[in-house]
Amino acid sequence: MANEKKSYRTNPFADFIRRMTKSFSAKLGVILFVVIVLFCLIGPFFSPYGVNDVDLLNMYAGPSANHILGCDALGRDMCTRLMYGGRYSLALGIAASVFGAFVGVVIGSIGGYFGGITETLIMRLMDVWSALPGTLLCILISSAMGNGFFPTVIALTVGGVPGTVRMIRGQILTERSKEYIEAAQSINCSSLVIMFKHLLPNVIQPIIVTTTMGIGSTMIMAASLSYIGLGIQPPSPEWGAMLSDGRSYIRTNPHLLLVPGIAIALTVFAINLMGDGIRDALDPKLRD
User: Fold this and answer.
1) What is the pTM of this model?
2) 21 CB-side CA count, 13 A
3) SS3 of 235, please?
4) Who has greater pLDDT, 160 or 87?
């Protein structure tokens, strides 16, 4: 029995799950996020309305038995549009955060491992990059590349790359002088193998945490782009675009603004709770 308990505790994944389940806030975040994802992915199959079904008799209709969250200016069911819009918002947040982390990890690994002139050039480039306001840079790129999913992902990605590069470079500088790296070099492992097979698994934990917590802020930025006429645009029901549609009716029909606004707030809240839980679960100082 003691051996089984010891084996369970030394399994990194099992230990991570155990620590996540001990945190009430982490469990709340995971449950809330899963509910939101299922609502967006499965909910449309149970909706009696299409995402762009127009019903002029129900223009600006408030919440009712037939339309739980009311209807918009064209009589389209807000609940159905919220489900489909969540797919865009979640996909944008996750895709941009993961892609930005990937780019930052690759650049930071190269700079941290090789050092010298390579590191100097990369870090000076990151200094110039980070000197540009992230929001302004995002707006400029989105304006230049146009609307649509993939241009918006690229625009959302650029702001977070310098921070990730600096983080991964600092981690690799700490690790590259350790004995297991010298052992890998002594058996003629290639630089790519050392960077991505030996170094990266030992420095990836903070990247996982920052990427997870960055999804929420990226979703807010995506909604902001849609709100000012960039990013995903109508008739696609992205949550930011829905906010933009409803801003003219905030006094007469506040549900047009409140529905997508609350959806964004709840999703970001759930993601931040998950990020806090992941950070605590991966922190070696908090392990019992």
Assistant:
1) 0.84
2) 6
3) coil
4) 87
